[in-house]
Amino acid sequence: MLGILIDQGYGAVAIQTDNLEVIKPIQDKPIGGSNLALIRRIHHLLAQLDHWSISYISRMDNQEADTLAKLAQEGRH
Question: What residue spans define the domains of the chain?
C-alpha cells in the first residue's frame, strides 16, 4: 500500500496501527540496517516521502480499518 501511495505522488503519509511492536522498529533510524527485510523495505519507502508519521490506535478505535482490511483480504481469495 505504501508503494502505491508513493507511485500516486503522495508526499506525506500518516500510518496508524494497533500493534505497538511494529511502531518502534519503524520509528527507529536504521543504524547499520535492520535484520528484518520488511523493516528495511518500509524504511526505504518512507525515505521517499517528504513527511510521514506512525502512531498507535487501539483495536477498538481501529475497527473500521480492520473491517476494510478483512474485506480486501477476502477479495483476494
Answer: 2-76
Spell out the residues 6+ positions from residue 11 whose beta carbon is closer than 8 angstroms to its own: 49, 50, 51
pLDDT in tens, 14-27: 999 888 888 998 99
From the CB of residue 64, how many other CB atoms can be counted at a distance below 10 Å? 8
Residue among 44, 38, 66, 50 nearest 13 (CA)? 50
pTM to 2 decimals? 0.70
- Contacts of residues 57-63 at CB distance under 8 Å and 24 or more positions apart, as own/partner, are 57/16, 57/17, 57/18, 58/18, 59/18, 62/16, 62/17, 62/18
